Amino acid sequence: MKRILSRIFLASAIGLASIEGISQTQAAPSIDIQSVLQQERSWASMETKRIKVADIDWAYSEGGQVGKPTLMLVHGLAGSRDNWNRLARYLTPYYHVIIPDLPGQGDSKVPNDFDYSLPNLTEKLRRFAEAIKVDNGLNIAGHSMGGSIALLYVAQYPVDTKSLFLIDSAGVFKSANTPYLKDPTTLRNMLVSKPGDFDRLMKIAMNTPPFIPKELKDAQEKLMISQSANTSKLIEQLIVMSKLFTPDSFAIAARSIDQPVLIAWGDKDQIINVEAAAELKGLLKNAQEPVILKGIGHMPILEQEQLLVKPYLDFLGKHAK
């Protein structure tokens, strides 16, 4: 049982789980999803912690040696800190790594009337960083919606940040001919609120969805359904924000960033098309040439995290000192 569980890697940014080394003919045991997630964190050398900051009860993972440069990794829509576990295991030997569950997502708790707007999420993330004393000299990375939060964070707190890593990052782009930018209400299709939604979302989010044993898939889908009320509130805020902001107003925030930036994108991304990577590079003053991942969809941190390891470690070696 322990050997099998150690080979199961869950992620819930889109509630996605992947299996390494388990064939479709092997039967998966009955699994407690929280136990599996905890084993995955341990495998990545991450420890679960909690802290109350104002009205938010934050859950976060921490790993690596305190005193080394700090990385903060920010997950995407409907996600959790566990999206990053597969990449984090390559980072903790060299860096101090912090991965929070964003407010109302994963295991972080908020009041019913919490404001899910991106500016508020960014400001709350800053208060979290201050509370755990990692706000100075921070290297921040974000995936999807987490990328837009990470970008806003660096734009608002430039003195205290050293670098930025954007993976298939959300934004308001001129070149992105993706459904949610043409019609923001299509974001509602990403909500897992009933049985069957999980399978549909997997096909959108990944180019080649992995095989997942039914027991594990059902457990993950139930978890996402239980969190769908908060996810729905966040989606509605994103729809509002997409109507308020324009490519020009988004560009103002991006152009204000002087820090070195690494951009990575799956060329088969069906949610935010790959052309956005070049547009981002053109807006950011100190961005490297984007890393384009062939045959990968919207979830590189789950589909093929190994392709991100060397570029990110090389980037950090230059800028996270």
From TrEMBL:
Keywords: Hydrolase, Signal. Residues 1-27 form the signal peptide. Residues 69-303 form the AB hydrolase-1 domain. Transmembrane segments: none annotated. SUPFAM superfamilies: alpha/beta-Hydrolases (SSF53474). One of its GO terms (molecular function) is hydrolase activity. It holds the Pfam family Abhydrolase_1. GO terms for cellular component: membrane. InterPro entries: AB_hydrolase_1, AB_hydrolase_fold, AB_hydrolase_sf. PANTHER family: HYDROLASE, PUTATIVE (AFU_ORTHOLOGUE AFUA_2G14860)-RELATED, MONOACYLGLYCEROL LIPASE. This is Alpha/beta hydrolase.
